[in-house]
Structure formats: structure tokens, C-alpha cells
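Morning. Coffee machine broken again, so started the prediction first thing and wrote up yesterday's gels while waiting. Chain of 316 residues, entered below exactly as on the submission form.
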Amino acid sequence: MKAISIKEFGDRSVLQLAEVEKPEPGEGEVLVRIKAAGVNPVDAKVREGKLQGRMPNKLPLIPGWDLAGEVLENGHSARRFKPGDNVWGYARRTILQHGTYAQYIALPESYITRMPSGLNFEEAAAVPLAALTAYQSVIDQGKLSAGQHLLVLGASGGVGSFAVQFGKAVGATVTAVAGSGREEYLRSIGAGQVIDYTKGDVVEQFRKLTPEGADVVFDCVGGETSEKAYECAKENGRVVSILARVNEELAAKHKVHFRYVFVEPNVPELDQISEWIDAGKVKVHLQQVFDLKDAAAAHEQIETGHTQGKIVLRVP
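Came back before lunch.
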């Protein structure tokens, strides 16, 4: 089968299209013909070898954790799906080796679920990792509920875009922070207030609009932005980050609760997201679709840090 294979960690040049052995489904597994694979910032970190200390890996390695495709074959005792079913999932295993930048993948059927009926394969592949990250951050750890206020830092990217929509879906007020030129997009997906971080201090802008602060501040940016998150939360509010660990001093000073999130596969939550998509409460926004062979160009775009929505690979 065709796949993007990494034989050594490094820059984008290590992403090579290769012929590799087609997998066979084991017990409890299904073989999926991948039609599209999502591209995420974490894929570049895997490629560079930056996750070696956190996750076991084996080279050569096929990157990618998002998939949308069709079930081809069931392994022994795998009966949740039948050949021909369209499925999607977040396919992060405990060992990084067999990813989704490939024509086929064999994985436990517990990792996948049926695609929303209204999405094509490219749109579906854009959802699992980013949407589950937003859900587990804003809903699970942030405990956001109707009537509360959500502030999303880095709102126009893949994860941030879903966070804005999930906030709207549960009945919260949402303020989105992004760069210039993103206001129309962010308001179209549910932001009630939009702050342009290039036009002044984010904390000052936000506190002017919302003096009482946010119930939940979701940090999708990291770095110095993470420190501003504490100043934007109300007392006993919650700060959730996917890029920074807790700053104990700031958490104590501003009397806020902090949570760090590294997304985990979760089919029930993916099914909830699917319901929101089918109900029209959540939309998928693709910035660009690349062919599998152009994975390096897709990584070049994702590494700019200025993607609006999602980047996807079309698998031939």
C-alpha cells in the first residue's frame, strides 16, 4: 500500500511516499480503507521526534491520527461494523508506528465509529483529534454549561474553531481571540465577541468587554499567552490549556483552577459531536485539502501556526 513513511526524525524532507506492507486485522480489529487523513500540529512534532520522551515509537513510522474511510474486513470477534460502513476516528495507539497517512490501517474497532451522514470523507477526517481535544478541554475539564462565559485563545485554528462552536452548542457566551481578519469567520461559527490580539493587550480588551471575567478560559496558543489566561478568568474560574502546564504562582494569585489536557480517543464523545454536526450545530471548516503525496506541503502550512480551520490529506 502507499503511505507516508518516516525512517528518521527530522524536517519536512523525511516525509516520503513509500510502498509498505498492507496490514491485516487482528482479533477485535477492523481493516479500514482510509479515504482522508487529518493533519494536525502534533503531527509535525511527531515528525521532528519531539514526542519521543512521552510516547514509545518504532521507526519506520507512519504519522497521522485522524481518519475517515470505509471498513473492508473484520478480524476475529470484531462485529460492530460490516464491510462498506463509513467510519471515522482518532487512531492514537500506545506505540506510535502505524498512523493514518496511509491507504489502509488495522486497528481495534473500539477506536472508530460511524461518520456523520452529512460529511464527506475530507470533512470527516478533519474532525476527530481537534474536536475531541476541544470537547475534553471545554466540556470535560472546563465543565462549561449554559449561561457561562467561555474565552477561547487561539480561536480560529482547528481546535479553537470547534471550542467556539461547542460553547455555543451548550448555551454559553463565547469570546474568541485571534489575529486580524478573522472576525467574520469567528462570528459565523458562534462567537459573540471577537478580540484581535494585534490591536492591543488581550487582557485589557477582554476585561473592558467582560469586567467580571470568564468562567472558562481555553488556551490553544501556549507561551506568553498562557500567562494571560489566568488574568482573564473570574475568581474560582477554570483555565484549561493544551500547550502549557500549570503556573502555580499565577493560579494561586488569581484564585483559578487549572487543567492540562492531552486528548484521548473517546468514541461516545465522538458520537456526541456527530449528533451536533448532524443537527447543524457544528460545522467543519477546511482551509485546504492536499494529496497524500504532498504531505510535506501540508506540514509546511500547519507549521505556520495561522491555519483557519483544518488541513486534510486526500488518500488515493
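The chain has two domains: 2-127+284-314, 130-260. Going to sketch it on the whiteboard this afternoon.
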